[in-house]
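#random but structural
TW: two for the price of one
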Amino acid sequence: MTRTRPRVAILDDYQGIAMSMADWGPARARCDLVVFDRHLEEEEAVQALADFDGVCLLRERMAFPATLIARLPKLKFIGITGVQNRTLGLQAALDRGIVVSHTVRRGDGLGATAELSWGLILALARNLPREFGNMREGRWQTSYGMSLGGRTLGLLGLGRLGRLMVPVGKAFGMRVIAWSQNLTEEAAREAGCERVDKHTLFAQSDFVSLHQVLSERSRHIVGEAEIAAMKPSAYIINTSRGPLIDRAALIRALRERRIAGAGLDTYDVEPLPADDDLRTLDNVALTPHLGYTVGELLRPFYEDTAENLVAYLAGAPIRLLTVDARPH
């Protein structure tokens, strides 16, 4: 029997919340929606999505490169959240005439990732992962922590999220220093912190927190030399992108106790494999890319995506994305 209704996939809905975050009724009236609650690697995606006319992505949970797009000949619509997706083969999609719609940044959760950075800092400073486990298993006070007052917070990147870290650090009584390739002393002063060179940032900080966009220039911006410059009592926090840190160098330093520990929310490969080496270390606090996953951000993501899908199905697509990643 010939299929007449379009099929659209909502991908990587790990928490099973997509359908409750928006009114999908108008979309359901025009297409068949299928929610995937598990991650699909490319080969599996080719099979699972072969008969779909559209896909709705959440951030960069699932890579959608040109190689995958080429193997999905029925695909006509891609919905992304935000205005940039570095794992999307946008040019390939546009060359095929595929409609790509984006969402608009709004809501009260725009600082959520910076908030999680503080959660990881506090977890490491007070050994919370270990003590959480101890309390569940009947033990009592097996470690001692460190106060943040008088410590130094080093910010690698002082953009929108990095700047949000400054007043909180100062409220804790911390010295706040920062470095990035283009950071000026004036910009650092305006943000309320001190600009230092890269080596000083790593050598003097008790906590180094990463707040940079991933690019070819910033890939492995934290490598063997930077980690070697850190104090044995220092911690590194990454809520930005996994490949900002040379993973092999970090794991070696953690295993050899050359730094005190790490708080990580992002990884080179996501979801993090169940047998990954990072999961075996006792001096890390690991979270599954929770930085942006708050209702205040997820709800508008899904609401806009539902609107974008309905507009496309009605023949008047909105929030179109161009190849230079600027909406029009």
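TW: number two ↓
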Amino acid sequence: MEFSENNIHTTINPSQPDHLRDNVLEYVQTDFPRLNETLTVEMALRIIRQEGIGERIVYFYVLDSDEKLIGIVPTRRLLTSMPNVRIADIMVEDSITISDKATVLEVCEMFVKHKLLAFPVLDDDGVMLGVIDAGLFSAEELTFAQRHNFDDIFQMIGFGISQIKGKSAFGLFRYRFPWLLATMASGLTCALLTGFYEATLAQTLVLAFFITLVLALGESVSIQSMTVALQNLHFTEPSWAEYCKWLKSEISATVLLGLACGTIIGIIAFVWRGELLPSVVISLTIYFSVTMAGIIGMSVPTLLHAINEESKIASGPLTLAAADIVTILLYFNAALLVLP
């Protein structure tokens, strides 16, 4: 998804909620403050006092005679400049704008990306049609159902505010603790598996030095992939075809990540300890475990979503648990295959 300074270019999936595909013009405000570059600060302030600005979040827009936007005056500059200073001297010409063809979803992403409180909306000729501001997300502008969906957009990772709002400490404990049992179970499983390979560790001590690093890389990649999956699930109703497309893209990325990380750590292990075969084991394990972590991170939240489970709070612990177990199995079995 790409943004330019003056336009937005993206493709919206037809399965997204209808209001997210609404055109931005349905929400713009047309009664915005208009200024001319020939005015002085004193004249501009007089006009603003006469016309009023209401109680909205505002910037001051400078238009030419054809209603085309030529600059924006930040409120601070307008209030702190001397009265005889020309508006043309304090306006910002390189402004970030939104196309009149943009959707509500694209506008949401612009607010998140640029951290501004309002954007001017222009047509293809640069004519300013209105202003879209952060009031789009207020209770006065949206229905309850719409506010719920926008809340989802800004809380793609973690668990929703509505799920913990008003709960006691014990209520939060009951909501979160069951999923942490998966982490404890995976830790115990990894400990048991490590015990089964005790002889391998005793024979090649260098493997023990890198076990934490190997696990950490798998966990990190699995969480990154899980984040991508949760973002996809918020914007698209998953199907088998969509899942395969996501998985193909994630595997392509994690294969490269695994290759890079495995090569670097393998070289470090060899330089440090001077043992070739253990370094090969470490390198191969990282390569395959990072790739598998990407598959797990993409698959777990998608599966939970498919069976109508709460994917946000459950995905993290379950993804990490699966990634740890798979990594441990790959690590020690690679050692058994490679080491004499």
